[in-house]
Write a structure and sequence with these properties.
alpha/beta; globular; 4-stranded antiparallel beta sheet; binds 5'-O-[hydroxy(phenylacetyl)phosphoryl]adenosine; Rossmann fold; GMP Synthetase, Chain A, domain 3
């Protein structure tokens, strides 16, 4: 499937798309209604290009039909439930039939293999287990590949270190921010993460940068690949990088059709241009999803890959449309700031962006921490002139690249909260202020 000739793949996608449409029209009232409203019928979909005639699905559709309204099978056929990691309100609930779990496991097994994992390897899973799809998603994929899965879940960091030291897994997965936290804790306890037996890591579930990859690969002495997915579409494994190129994520196109649209006009954008990722599932039974607007910003590329996989690739996620900060009219993604900050060897790779209002103007206050030796060397004097120079250099770099002014706060060591799952990069005090009055 991964090396299928593209013509044959397109035929397979079309056949599976039509099956999916028949399924949702036959069993999901919400989709039936939306297609009537959009004045489109199954007979209008004569080729894959006609997918653009179909209405989009959004998180609101799932919320409006919460919890099971968009399921296409009776509940007794659903063998597992997961949920999205929405930070506010109720989670969105997603479900899987036995066949769905089988497909998902196979896709994740392929993803782990693409990263360098193989049968017989010990695989340390540091994604959370629970409603979040990360832990169980990677777990079933690892077992499917014939690995020995170590179900650590997230947190309990000292115990994770014992297991890495004693069981000597070859592979590990978790959020990039947690992997950084784990490495830091290991160093604190006097261990060198590079001396573990780990050879590869599969990191995702949150935006991260090439600079973060370089730091993680160096700290752990591993090859680190990016894995992408979302619960509404399946979970981890929708796309993954290969260890050969580590440059763009192969989309599991036998199971999903990817599109990129302009989020303001909703029209398709040409290959290579950034826009919002939209996915249609092709094999899911319990919760088929049609043109789901992910809110994630990326681009697509059909440039052939040296690994031999024939699927198109998506770029690293730049951020979510709803994470984009608009500072005095300028759009900035947290990942762009991360890319710049992580180039400073004086800093630890933990940071937080505080959004505030000063007068009527929005303002960014960047919280950063110094490397321990620098902090100790300066006698912990945060007003030291070397630090003033460092701060103004960072401000200048961010202004030159992102066109926004920033204030810099140097925090004490470990003052910035360390992540155990998805890192909270942006604290929006403006929202918190307005919530106080609402
Ligand atoms: O985060 C699934 C997952 C688990 C992916 C483990 C990778 C590894 P949700 O909790 O539903 O599912 O969150 C989905 O997380 O829309 C993106 O905004 C973000 N996201 C996921 N993977 C990446 C990634 C899982 N590799 C949301 N890079 C998505 C950037 C990512 N953002």
């Amino acid at each position: 499937m991964e090396t299928m000739e593209r013509g044959a793949l397109k035929k397979l996608q079309y056949r599976r798309l039509m099956n999916t449409l028949r399924r949702v029209i036959g069993s999901v009232g919400h989709y039936r209604l939306k297609m009537v409203q959009a004045d489109v019928g199954i007979e209008d979909i004569q080729s894959l290009d006609d997918i653009s005639k179909l209405p989009f699905t959004t998180k609101d559709d799932l919320r409006d039909t919460y919890p099971f309204g968009m399921f296409a099978v009776p509940q007794h056929e659903v063998i597992r439930i997961h949920g999205s990691s929405g930070t506010s309100g109720k989670p969105t609930i997603v479900g899987y039939t036995e066949k769905d779990i089988g497909c998902w496991s196979e896709i994740v097994a392929r993803s782990i293999a693409a990263a360098g994992g193989k049968k017989g390897d010990l695989f340390h899973i540091a994604y959370g287990y629970g409603l979040f799809t990360g832990g169980l998603g990677l777990h079933y994929g690892a077992e499917q590949l014939g690995m020995t899965a170590i179900p650590m879940s997230a947190g309990n960091t000292d115990r994770q270190i014992t297991v890495i030291n004693d069981l000597q897994p070859q592979g590990i997965c978790g959020t990039p921010s947690y992997m950084l936290n784990l490495a830091e804790r290991m160093e604190e306890k006097g261990f060198n993460p590079r001396q573990s037996n780990l050879a590869y890591g599969i990191f995702g579930a949150e935006p991260w940068s090439e600079e973060m990859r370089a730091i993680l690969e160096d700290k752990w002495g591993i090859t680190a690949v990016d894995i992408y997915g979302l619960s509404e579409v399946m979970g981890p494994g929708v796309a993954v990088e290969c260890q050969e190129e580590q440059n763009g994520l192969h989309i599991a196109e036998d199971h999903f059709i990817a599109e990129i649209i302009d989020p303001s006009t909703l029209l398709p954008v040409e290959e290579g241009k950034e826009g919002e990722l939209v996915f249609t599932s092709l094999t899911k039974e319990a919760l088929p999803i049609i043109r789901y607007r992910t809110g994630d910003i990326a681009s697509l590329s059909s440039v052939p890959c040296s690994c031999g996989r024939t699927s198109i690739k998506m770029s690293r996620i730049k951020g979510r449309t709803d994470d984009m900060m608009i500072i005095r009219g300028v759009n900035v993604f947290p990942s762009e700031i991360e890319r710049l900050l992580l180039q400073y060897k004086e800093l630890v790779p933990h940071y937080q962006i505080h959004l505030k209002t000063k007068g009527s103007m929005d303002e960014i206050n960047l919280h950063i921490e110094l490397q321990d030796d620098l902090y100790n060397h300066l006698g912990q004097n945060l007003a030291h002139e070397n630090l003033s120079r460092l701060k103004s250099d960072i401000k200048h770099t961010i202004k030159a690249n992102c066109l926004v002014n920033t204030e810099i706060t140097i925090c004490r060591p470990k003052e910035i909260a360390r992540s155990e799952g998805k890192a909270i990069r942006v604290i929006d005090w403006k929202k918190q202020q307005s919530n106080l009055f609402s």
